[in-house]
Automatic annotation (TrEMBL):
<keyword id="KW-0645">Protease</keyword>
<keyword id="KW-0378">Hydrolase</keyword>
<dbReference type="GO" id="GO:0005737">
    <property type="term" value="C:cytoplasm"/>
</dbReference>
<dbReference type="InterPro" id="IPR001948">
    <property type="entry name" value="Peptidase_M18"/>
</dbReference>
<protein>
    <recommendedName>
        <fullName>Aspartyl aminopeptidase</fullName>
        <ecNumber>3.4.11.21</ecNumber>
    </recommendedName>
</protein>
<comment type="similarity">
    <text>Belongs to the peptidase M18 family.</text>
</comment>
<keyword id="KW-0031">Aminopeptidase</keyword>
<dbReference type="InterPro" id="IPR023358">
    <property type="entry name" value="Peptidase_M18_dom2"/>
</dbReference>
<dbReference type="GO" id="GO:0004177">
    <property type="term" value="F:aminopeptidase activity"/>
</dbReference>
<dbReference type="GO" id="GO:0006508">
    <property type="term" value="P:proteolysis"/>
</dbReference>
<dbReference type="Pfam" id="PF02127">
    <property type="entry name" value="Peptidase_M18"/>
</dbReference>
<dbReference type="GO" id="GO:0008270">
    <property type="term" value="F:zinc ion binding"/>
</dbReference>
<dbReference type="GO" id="GO:0008237">
    <property type="term" value="F:metallopeptidase activity"/>
</dbReference>
<keyword id="KW-0862">Zinc</keyword>
<comment type="subunit">
    <text>Tetrahedron-shaped homododecamer built from six homodimers.</text>
</comment>
<keyword id="KW-0482">Metalloprotease</keyword>
<keyword id="KW-0479">Metal-binding</keyword>
Length: 432
């Protein structure tokens, strides 16, 4: 596959995945196309060497793997399906000066200012009663622009360019339409109408939902020399796609190759589907067993946690340690933190650098300024749950947690090939 084809497939994945539910559904479709078999957590499993399997939880997290020899351990790649966004509240209806708005809750560390003046749509999952009074669920995506958060004109806020604070309760409820005099609107009725329009005529009553607003502008290759990919949710669907592509292009070997994409990373990962929850461990126990068997398997295993890294911004270069300032299109970034905000150690970093030397891939390092707080990701959390050697890795990006982020057109394509080499490792060098 060429770099151009890879990036076009990536763009299609990003556009098809406005929520974690849609991202997992898109990944499931691709896995099924290549022969992966679904597993159900509520049933017993019969795993065979050479088999290809996947299992989902809550429709928002997924583990997919090719089954190798149990004594070889696993080569695992991790990412997360969620992104900072605006979620619709349970009783969201707002009627202000004849405008119908929806109250929203901020999910994760959203960079709020870029959400103003964007063409927004709505997507997620809806729970409803059908005409047999059975509870059903359905993914929904309005796709078209249905809302906007207009900025306040500069004439009414002359100091806006010298300092703008956004109040998430009062400043960001999106406007959906104008109301007639004394008109009352039930948001759940609007959802019912949309479900029926989409062909779900059995919907009698919408009970609950998990819905998020998103920017309708398509992901795109941009720049005068096509150097960049601009899109919403690059953090962390970019890594989900790279991990998926690597797994799908990995030829079966003696070693189990596994991809895990967890939900709820942006809000701490403590949930049934998060990296600090039991999902991945429960899958590994079914592969290797519990107790000593799992401990021995994890000692022979390694995880590469792939999340985005902060590329050095030319307008804000002072925010970086000058010796650890990753550039877009200069390779994946090994993320290091002495206080264990990242799980990288000398063993896992050396192994990855060796893989890059073998494949000719570029590699960079990121360490925060010593006077700046460091973020974290699923790496330390998963390592803490499993006791597995872990490398925290990321693709350099700009605008992390904005409604539209920026990455390089070369980095994801190159990382995919390196991860395929990682999946093929029959033995980890530090075990020899």
């Amino acid at each position: 596959m060429s770099k151009e084809h890879f990036n076009q497939e990536l763009i299609q994945f990003l556009n098809a995945s406005p929520t974690p539910y849609h991202a997992v559904a898109t990944m499931v479709a691709k896995l099924q196309e290549t022969g992966f078999q679904p597993l159900n957590e509520s049933e017993s499993w019969s795993l065979k060497e050479g088999g290809k399997y996947y299992v989902t939880r809550n429709g928002s997290s997924i583990v997919a793997f090719t089954m190798g020899k149990p004594e070889q351990g696993a080569r695992m790649v991790g990412a997360h399906t969620d992104s900072p966004c605006l979620k619709v509240k349970p009783q969201p209806e707002l009627n202000k000066h004849s405008y119908f708005q929806l109250g929203v809750e901020v999910y994760g560390g959203v960079l709020l200012n870029p959400w103003f003046d964007r063409d927004l749509s709505l997507a997620g999952r809806v729970q409803y009663l059908n005409n047999q009074n059975q509870l059903c669920h359905q993914l929904i995506n309005f796709e078209r622009p249905i809302a906007i958060i207009p900025s306040l004109a500069i004439h009414l806020d002359r100091e806006v360019n010298s300092g703008r604070a956004v109040n998430p309760q009062t400043d960001i409820p999106p406007i959906l339409f104008q109301l007639a005099d004394d008109e009352k609107v039930d948001f759940r009725e609007l959802l019912k109408e949309e479900l029926i329009r989409l062909g779900h005529s059995d919907c009698q009553e919408v009970m609950e939902y998990d819905l998020s607003f998103y920017d309708t502008q398509s992901a795109a290759v941009i720049g005068l020399k096509d150097n960049f990919i601009a899109s919403a949710r690059l953090d962390n669907l970019l890594s989900c796609y790279v991990g998926l592509d690597s797994l799908l292009n990995h030829k079966e070997s003696d070693t189990t190759a596994l991809l895990v994409c967890n939900d709820h990373e942006e809000v701490g990962s403590v949930s049934t589907t998060g990296a600090q929850g039991p999902f991945l461990k429960s899958v590994l126990e079914r592969i290797y067993g519990t107790g000593e068997s799992l401990t021995r398997a994890m000692n022979r295993s390694m995880l590469i946690s792939t999340d985005n890294a902060h590329g050095i911004h030319p307008n804000y270069a002072s925010k970086h340690d000058e010796h650890h300032a990753p550039k877009l299109n200069h390779g994946a970034v090994i993320k290091v933190n002495a206080n264990q905000r990242y799980a990288t150690n000398d063993e896992t970093s050396a192994l990855y650098r060796t893989l890059c030397q073998t494949s000719g891939s570029k590699v960079q390092h990121f360490v925060t300024r010593t006077d700046t707080a460091c973020g974290s990701t699923i790496g330390p959390l998963t390592a803490g749950v499993l006791g597995v050697r872990t490398l925290d890795l990321g693709l350099p990006t700009f605008g992390m947690h904005s409604i539209r982020e920026l990455a390089g057109t070369e980095d994801a394509f190159e990382l995919s090939h390196t991860l395929i080499r990682f999946f093929k490792l029959s033995q980890l060098p530090f075990l020899i």
